[in-house]
Batch of 3 targets.
Target 1
Amino acid sequence: MTGAESEELDRIKMAAQAILKSESLNLQLMPAIAVKLVNLTRDETVRLDALAKIIETDPALAIKVLQTVNSAAYCLPNKVTSIRRAVHLLGTDEVRRLALSMLLFSRMIRRESKGFDFLFFWQHCLFVAELSRQVAIALNHADPEMVYTAGLLHDIGKLALETHGKMTYSQFIASLPDSEHPLLEEERRFFGITHDEMGWVLCREWQLPAPIVAVAACHHALPDSGSPYYPCRTEIAIVAFANYTAWLQGISSISHAGPPQLSPLVFELLPIDVLELELESLLLETDKAMQAAREFYSIAFPDVNSLRARLLQASITMSRIHHHAGEFGSRSTRNISASLTAPHQSLDPAYFVPWTLEMIMQDFEFDRVILFSVNPQRRSLAAAHAYPEIHERALEIDIGCLSGKLLDCLREKKAVLIDAALEPKNPLLQKFNTAEFIAVPVLRHRRLAGMIYADYAIKQKSMAGRILEEIVAVAEQLGIALMNAKHYEMQRQQAQLDSLTQLYNRRMLECSLSQIFQRPAYELKGIALGFVDIDHFKSFNDQCGHQKGDEIIRLVADMLKRLTRPGDLIGRFGGEEFLFVLMNTDEDDVRAYAERIRLEIERRGEVLKPRFQQLGLTVSIGVALYQSDFGHYTDLIEAADQTMYRAKMAGRNRVILFSDLPPGCKTSALGRNIGN
C-alpha cells in the first residue's frame, strides 16, 4: 500500500470511529467462528478437517447443520449424525456456505428496526452472493465460493452503520425521500463516510482475504491500476453485476435506493456475450437457491419471478449504447434509465404503468403517452392508461378498421413511426390532431399485450430516427413487468392454497381470521369455527400406504368444498385436520352443518371401504362460536380444537360444540378459563 493509500485508510478509519458508538472497529457483526470459516484454506485436505472442527465448536450451529443435511432438500439415503460425515457427503464448499449463511442470518433476524429492514437486506445479500457464485462458475473462476462470500458481505458497511452507528442507517433512510443525489453522496453528507468505505475498514480489521476486502471497498467503482485491489477486478465486476441485477429484480439492500452505478468497465472485464447466452440458466439456478432459502429460513417476500434474460440483455444493451454514445451521435446519449427501471418499481400494474408512462414522457419530452391494451374478445385497442390523463376514458379503436403501418405494428409486432402526410386517415392522427406518432408493441410471452402511443402534438417536433430503438427497450421492460405482475398474482394465489387439497393453507386461514378479529366485537357475533379431524388416519397410512392417505385427505377436502356455503372459509389446517369458519350463523345452524359434513363423509366412507382395506372413513368435529371473552382469534381456534379432542375421547365420529363442554374444561390457549 502506498503512502497516499495508507493516509486514505487512516482518514476513513478516523471517520468510522467518529460515527460509531465505540471507537473500536472490532464490531461483532461477524461472529469469530464466521471469520474462521471465511479464512479457511483452499487446500481440500486441510479444509475438510478444519471445517468439521470449526463447526463442532458451536453446538447450536452443529445441530442446525445436521438438521439441514438430514432434511428432504438433500435426499441423503441415511441419517447423518456427525459433522465430519456431513462434510464428506456434501463437500466442504456446500457445508461452509451453509454454515456461514446460518451464522450471518441468525445475527440479523434477532434485530428490529423501524427503517432498516433486516430481512430485506438479508435477501439482497443472499441473492447477490448466489448469483455471483453462478456467474463465477459460468466463467470458470478459480474460487466461486470466495466470490459467493464476497457477494454475501459486499454491503456489510450498511449493517455496521445501522447496528453500531451513533446515527443509524434507519435515520439516514428517513432523510432520503426528498433527495435527488446519488446514494453514496448522501451517505457521505449524513455520516461523513460511505457504506463501502465502512465495509473496507471492517473487512481489513477482520483480516479477510483480499478479494472480499476489495469487493466491499470497490463494488460501486472499479479500482484503477494503481490500487492494491486492481488484481481483484474480476471478482469486483462479478459482484457489481450481481448487485445491479438484484436491484433490477426489486431485491435491493434498502427499498429507498435508486439503481446502483454499473461501470462500463464491467463489460470489459466480464465476457458479457457469454453471460447473455447463460443468463436464463444463471437466473434459474439463483431462483432455485433463493426458493430453498425462503423455505429454510421461512422468509416471506414477493417472488418477482425473475426479470429473466431479456431484461438483463436490454439493460446491458442500453448501458453499451450509453458507453459508446459517440458512435451514434448526440441522440443516443439520452439518459432513459428512469423509463427502463420504472416498470419494475412495483408488482401492481395500477401503480407501475402510469409511473412508466410519466417517465417516458419526461425522458423523451413527449407531449402525450398512452398505453392501449388489446381486448381479444372485442378485437379492439382500448386506452388503459395515459399521461397526462385523457378525457375520453372509453377511447377504443376497432382493430378490424385499421390499415397501414399501425396494422403492421400489431400483426408483425414491430415499432412504427406513422406520418400524417402518408396516412392522413389514420384514426389516432385524426383523434389527437398530430402530424406524426410512434406506435410500439408491448409483448407478454411474445404475444401482443398492448401498444405504446406517443406524440409531439403540442411541440410539433419531428421524431428522431433512433427514438424507436430506445422506446422498444422500454416497451420490453414494460412487457416483462406486466408478465411478472401476472405471474406474481398467480403465485400469490397459489401461495394461499394447500398443494394437496387446493384449499386454503394454514397461513391463509390464520391471516383471514386475524383480519376478521380486527372488526368490532358486535360484528363478530354469529361467527363459528370448526375443526374437522379424520379418525384413525394413521391406520390409512400404515395399512394402505401414504398415497392412499393423500387420497383420503383429498376426498374429505372435496366433500368440504361441496358442502361449504359461498362466503364461508375453509382450509387444511395441517396433517389430517381441516378448519371451517361460518359467518352469520347460530348454534343450531352450525351444529346442523357440522352433522351434515360428518354424515356425508361417513356414508362416503362406507361406499369406499373396499378401496381402503375395509377401513371406515369418519371424522370428529369440534365447533366453537365466538364469545365476548375471546380476545384473539387463537382463543376461538383453541376452543374448537379442545372440543374436537373431546369428540375424539368420546368415541370419534361425532360433533361436539364448545357450549356442550363442562365449564371446568374450557381453557384458552393462554391457560385461562373461557366461555364460562
Note: Confidence is low (pLDDT under 50) at residues 301-333, 668-676.
Target 2
Amino acid sequence: MDALSQLFYLHGIGFEFTKYTGEQVFFSEETRKRALQCCGVDTNNEAGIAQLTYDLDASLWLDLVPSVSLVEQSTCLLKLRIDERQQYLAANIDVPSLGMHIAFDNLYNLAVTGEYYLHGVRYIELALPIDNMPIGYHDANVQVGEQHAITQIWCVPEQVYQVEDTKRTGLSIQLYTLKNRANLGIGDFDDLLALTKLCSSQNMDYILLNPLHLLFADMPERASPYSPNSRALLNPLYISIVLSEDAINNENLDAIMQQDDVAALIKSNDQFIDYENVSRIKYTLFEALYNQFELTASDERRQAFTDFCNAHSTTLNTLESDNLTFAYYLQWQAHMQLALCQKSCAERGMAIGLINDLAVGCAGDGAEFKNQQSLFSQGASVGAPPDPWAEAGQNWGLPALNPQSLINNHYQFYRSLIRANMQNVGGLRIDHVMAIRRLWWCFESNGEQDGCYVYYPFEHLLAILKIESHINQSIVIGEDLGIVPPEVREALASSGIFSNSLFYFEKQHSGEFLSVDELATHCLLMIANHDVPPFTGWWQHDDLDIKQQYKLITCNEYEQLKQQRIEEQQRLLRFINHHGNTTELLLHSEAVTVYSALALCLAGSQSRLFAIQIDDLDEQKYPVNIPGTDKEYPNWRRVLTHTSEEIFTKNASLLAAIDSIRKG
C-alpha cells in the first residue's frame, strides 16, 4: 500500500459504498484527495504525507497508552503497548480520583491483543486486568520501568441507559407549533408543561421534541431547528413569560402587554409563524423580565443565576451579544423551564418524560462553528448520497467535522455536546445517527460538485453515548433512516440504542408493508415525522397539491406521483384490512378513519416505543417541512389548528384504545 492510500485509510476517507440500488460505488482518487485537502492535508507533499501517516499509525506504538483508553466495564482490561523486550519490567497504574493503585511485578503471562513491527522491533499490546471502577472518565498515571504516561480511562458500560423493558406510548411534537396559551404566536414551555399533564392522563410515557437548539435572534426568519446557531444552547423563544418569576408584579411587563402590536399578535390566529414579529415582541418582553430580575431579585436567586453561569461557562462563553448577562439570563430561564417540564413528567409517572433531539450539524456562520472552527473541515459540508427520496443526493449545507480533530482534548467537544442535550430530559434522539460512523461529505472538485463518505472514530463516539446516557439517566434513540452500514445497525442494537422506524418506509421487497409482527422490537416506531407529510395530508394528496402549487413539481410529475400514491394507499388498506378489527376500509374512506385504524394496528406491534404525532391527531394537511426546499415553502412555521386540550378531548377514545392495546 502506498503512503497516500494508507493515509486515506488512516484519515477515514472512504473507498467505496453500496448504493441503495445494491450497486457498489467506488470513489476516484481525485475525489478522495479532495476530501483530504478539506482536512488541511497537502496531497502533493510526499514528505508531509509520509510524516502524517507515521503520526497516525506507527508512532502510536511508541506510546505506553493512548490519550484515551476505552475499558469495558464488563471485563476491565486496560490496553498497554510496549517493546516486547520490556515484559520483565514492573508496571504501576494510579487513578487518583478513585484512590486506586494497581501494581504488576512484570508483564509476562498477560494476553497479547495486538502487535506491530517498527525498525525491526516487535511492539505488543497487552491487556492488563484492573479493578472495577464506576462508569465515567478517570485520569490515570501509567508507569512501566522508567517510562511514564498519562491516559484518561473511559469505563464504558455494555449498553446505554435503559428503562424497564415494556411497551410504551408517547407523543411526537414540534414545540413551536403548539397553540400558544398566552397567544404570543409560538409554542413555549408553558404549553409543553400543560402537555405533560395531558399526556400523563392518557398513560403516555414520553414526549418527543424537535431540536430546541439556539437559532439566530438577529435573523429570526432562519427558523430551521436542524440548522442551528449552537446545539449546546437553547432557543429563548421557547421561554414562557408566565412561568418566569420575574413576571410577578412587573409593571413594565404589564405595560408592554397592553401595547397595540402585542394586542394585535394576541388577537391574531395565523396559520404560519411570523418569526420577525414574534421574536421582536418576545425579546421586548424578555428585557422586561431581565430588568425586573436586576432590580428585585433576592440574594438566593442571584446566587442561583451565578451558579448556573459557572456550571455552563464553557457553552455560555460562545454566545455573541451586546449584553452578555442578558443572554446568559435567557439561557438560565430556558434551562429552568425545561427542567420544570421534565419534573412534571416524573411527578406524573411518565417513565421517560421529555426526549430531546440532536441535529446532525450546526450552521457555518453560527456560534458553535465560530468557536470551534479548528475542529471543522475546510470547504466540505455534510449531506447524503442518492437514495429513493432524493435521487440527486442531498447537501444540507452544514460544515463537516474533521474526524482527526474530534480526538482533541479527550473528545471534549462531542462529550460536552451530548451532555448538554441530555440535561433536563429523559431521552435523546440523535438525528442521522450514522454520523458517528460515517458522513457523506459534499465539496467541489475541479469546479464540479463531488462527494464521498468520511469515517469517524465510531468506537469512541459510541462509548461517549453509553457513558453520558448513564450519567444523565437518558435513553438514546438513533435516527437510522436512509443508507445505514450493517455494522452501525449491529452496534446500535448491541448497545441498547433504539432504532427509529417510519411506517411509510417499512416495506417488503415486493413493495407491500411489513406485517405488524415483522416490525422491529427495540425501536421507536412512528407513522410520520417532520420530513414526511402528516397523515391526513398524505391520504388526501394535499402534499402533492402543495408541491404543485409551489412549482416544486411539474404537472406530469404530479400525475405520476398521484398514481404512485394511490398504489401506496391500496397497500396501506391491504395492511389495515389484514391486521385490523374494523369494517373493510376503501380508498374513499375518510382520512381520520384510516388513521385511527392504522394507529390501532401499529399499537399491537412489539416495538417498545410507539409515537403518535400531534399533527396527525390535529388532522393537519400542511407539512412543517418539505425536504429540499428553503425559501419556496414556509418550513418550520406551520402551527396547529387546535389547542392541545381540544386535540386530546377529540381523540380521547382513540388514545384510550391505543393505551389498552399497548398494555394488553
Note: Residues 232 and 416 are 8 Å apart (CA to CA).
Target 3
Amino acid sequence: MKQRPFLAALTLLLTACGQLDTQPAGLPDRDVALGQQLSTEVSEPWRGRWEVSRVPEWLEVSGADGAKSGEGAVRLTVTARRHAATPVAADQPQLRGEIEVNWTGENEQRGTARWTVTADQYRLTGRVTERPSVAGQDLRPGQPSAPAPQREVRGLIVTYRSAASRDAAVSPALSAQAALPAEARQARATLDALGVPASARQALSERSVVLRVSGAAAAQAQSVLSADPAVLSVTPNVVLHALATPAASSPASPVVPTDQYAPFQWAYPLMGYGAVWRDMEAGGYAKPVTVAVADSGVRYDHPDLDGRLWTPQEGALDVLTGTDNGDGDGPDSDPTDPSFAGRRSESHGTHVTGIVVARWGQNAPGCAGCSPTGVVGASYRAPVKVLPIRVLDAQGRTDIADVVAAVRYAAGLPVTLAGKTYTAPHPAQVLNLSLGGEGIAPAEAQPMCDAIAQARERGVLTFAAAGNSGTDQPYYPAACPAAVAVSSVTLTAAGTPTHASYSNHYAQVQLSAPGGSSVAAPTYYSGGTFGGQPFPDDIVSTGWDYTKNQPNYVVMAGTSQATPQVAAVAALLLSKGVTSGPQDTLARLVATSTDLGPAGRDEFYGSGMVNAAAALGAPAVSDALGVLLDDGQGHVYRPAMNALGGFTAYLGEGSYRVRAGRDQDANGLYGETHEPHSQPAQASLSPQQPQQDVGELNIVP
C-alpha cells in the first residue's frame, strides 16, 4: 500500500516526459552534407509555422510545389548550383553556406534555425607541357644533311708514345742529351723543324703537349706530327662552352596610355592593343585611312577629337532631309550633333567616334574642371581620320532613305539632297554603322543592302551593329550580305570575354568585340574604381554634356560600341599595309579572331572576338604561361599551375573546354590564334564522374 503513491507519481512523470518529447523547443540548427550529390532532402518534425528567410546564392531551396514556407513538419529539397560559388582560381575543394529558417512555435515562441550546407566540388586535373622548338634543316629521308656547326679550335694536343719524348719536346736542355732515346730527340727536332717556338709548347700530362698554333701552321703541324713514329695521336684543342641555355630576350613591354580615363578602357588591352601601340611606335603605319562614322553627328568642339576629323570644309555632311531633326535645317555640310533648349541625351556619334580616333595626351583646355587628357582612341599615331556623316536625328532616329544616302556618300558616290549634289572629297575605306532596326523585312532592307554592296565594290568595308534586344532576330542593315554584323562581348569574373546578354545573335553575325556589360545591369570585373566606387565594365569615350553645353566623357554599352572597335582594327590593317581592300581585310580579321563559345563560327560571336595584336602581327609584349577552363555558359576559371605544369581545379558539374598556352599580347588570354597553344581538351564532371584527368596539354610553338 505504501508503494502506490510512488507508482502514481512515476506514471505522472513518464506521461509528462512523453508530452515534452513530442514538441521540440524550436527548430534545431543542423549540418546538411551534400557530398557530391546535386541535391538532397532535408526534413525536421515541427508543429508550428516556418519560413526560409535566407539562402546563399549558390543554393536553391524549395518545399512542396516550390514553397519556402509552411506549417508542420519541414520538408525541403536543397540543390547546389556549384558554379555560382566556384572562385575564378577554382581552388576550393568544398563549398560552404548557411540557410536560415525562421520558426514560430505553438506557444508563439520565435527563433531562427541555421543549417550549414557543405558540398564537395568535383576535381579536374591535368598537366601543361611544352614541346621544344628545334631550329635546323629538314632531315627527312632524301633531304641533304645539315651542315656541321662551325667550331673554334685553339691549337693541337699531341700525345707521345713515351714520357721521354714529351720531355724532349718541351725541354731544350733534355733534348740535347745523348743518352735520350733516338725517338725523343726526333720529337724535339720535328717541332723545331715546324718552327713551333718553345713558348707555344705547354706540357699537359705525362705524355701530352699542347701546341698553341693556329691556321695553316696548325694544319701543317697536324699532318707532320701524325707521321712521326714518336707520336701516338694528334687532336685539335676544341673550344667548349657552358651548357646553360641562353636566356631568351625579354619581350618588349606593352604601351600603357597615361590619359586620365584610359585605365577604364579595358577593351583595348583585351584586344591586345598594348602590343599594337608598341608596334606603332616603331613606325610602319603610314597610309592615311578614312573611317566614315554615319551616326548622330559629332562635336567638333570636343578637345579630345581636335585634328582627328574631316571638317565641314573637307567633306563632312549632314544628310538628314527634314527640318525637325534638332538643328532646324536640312542637309548641309555641318554634321554637328546639335545643342538645343531642353536637350539632355548624350552625343552617340561623338562617343562612337572617340573609340576610333580620340587623341592621346594633353588636350587643349575644354572647360573649367574638364579632364585635361580624357580618353584614348585605338588609332594612336596612325594617320586615321573620321569622316562624320550625320544620319541620326537628335532623338536617335533615321530612315532607310537617309541611310542609303549616307552609305553612298561615304563610298564617294554622288548624292542629291534637297536639290543639291554632294560628293565626298575624302571617300572612306571603312564605314561604321552603329544603327539599325528590328522588324525590318529583307525586302524592306534591300535598298540599304544594295547601297552597302555598291560601297563594297568601291572598296569600302562596312561594319554594322548587330542589335541590342538580345534576340535571335536579324537586325538591318547589319544582316545585309555585304555588311559585317558585329555582336558584343563583355567580361567574366576571370577577365575573359563572354557574350553580352543584350547582344542579338543570328546567323549573319560575323565578328564580335567589346561593347560593355549593360548600363542597365552593369558588372564590375575590370577592377576600375572612380570616386571610391567600382567602375562598370562598359565603354567610356568622348561625349557631350548638353545641359552644361561642354565636353565630357560618357559610359555607354551596346553593339554600337562594339562595332567601332572592329572598324578601328580594319583601318589599322589598311594603314600598316597588312591588307589593301575589303576582301583581304575581312579575311584577316576573321582568321586572327579569338574563337569563343562553341568551336568555329556561331551566331553569338561569329568567327570570334577581334584580336588587334594578332591581326596586325604586333610583337610579343608578354610571355605568361597558363590554362583556362570554360564551361560554355559564361563561367571561366584560371587554376594555378605548379612548377611541373600540373594543375588541379575544383569545379561544379558541367562540360569544360580546357586550353593551355602562352599570352604574348598581355591580354590575359592564353593560346590565341597567334600564340603557342595546345589542342583543347574536353572534360565532363558530375556526381557519376566526380574526377577527370585530361592528361598532358602539349603547347606547340
Note: The chain has four domains: 24-120, 153-238, 262-338+346-615, 620-699.
